[in-house]
Amino acid sequence: MKYLNKVRFLLLAGIVGAVAMTAFFLISTSRTEKKAPVSASAQKTDDTEVSIRNFNMEESENGKTSWKIKADHAEKMKEDGRIKLHNLELVLFTKEGKKVVVTGDEGLYDGEKKEMTVTRKGGEPTRVLFDNGYLLTTTTLHWTDADKVARTD
User: Fold this and answer.
1) HEC string of the chain?
2) Rounded distance between C-alpha atoms, residue 90 and residue 14, angstroms
3) What span, in angstroms and rounded, lies between the C-alpha atoms of 142 and 108?
4) How open is the CA angle 95-142-99, to the nearest 5 degrees?
């Protein structure tokens, strides 16, 4: 009888352990962030810490995406950690889920301040396209995440 109780106890302990491990695995994998694959470029300069092609970055608040940045090329600067972006698209999302798409030739993102400047480089102007179809063009756009404000020169 004692042998049978011992076997039951070990079987129950094994089942409880398996359930606990499965729950831990499911919880830990559901909290991971999505990160886009990047490929490092060999065209680093002396001022550049890292150079990345096909750059993607996004920020979420309360499970909803606040903004996304895509660029053909990005360089993180050694001096101040800011990120220079080339041929970029910045997508801003409102609390209501609407989006504003900003495109430009060049940009500068300050991760500490969460500020972005988008400019043109002699070609097409910086474009700001709203969900309702309205289009704003400008030479330079400054965006600050803290107050959710975009300003033009």
Assistant:
1) CHHHHHHHHHHHHHHHHHHHHHHHHHHHHHCCCCCCCCEECCCCCCCEEEEEEEEEEEEEECCEEEEEEEEEEEEEECCCCCEEEEEEEEEEECCCCCEEEEEEEEEEEECCCCEEEEECCCCCCEEEEECCCCEEEECEEEEECCCCEEEEC
2) 51
3) 10
4) 30
Q: What is the pTM of this model?
A: 0.67
- Per the CB < 8 A criterion, the answer to whether 61 and 92 are in contact is no
Kindly report, residue by residue over 100-142, the tens digit of the pLDDT.
Answer: 999 999 999 998 998 999 998 876 788 999 999 999 999 899 9
By C-alpha distance, which of 16, 12, 52 is closest to 36?
52
User: What six digits make up the tokens of 97?
Assistant: 């889920």
Residue 148, pLDDT score? 83
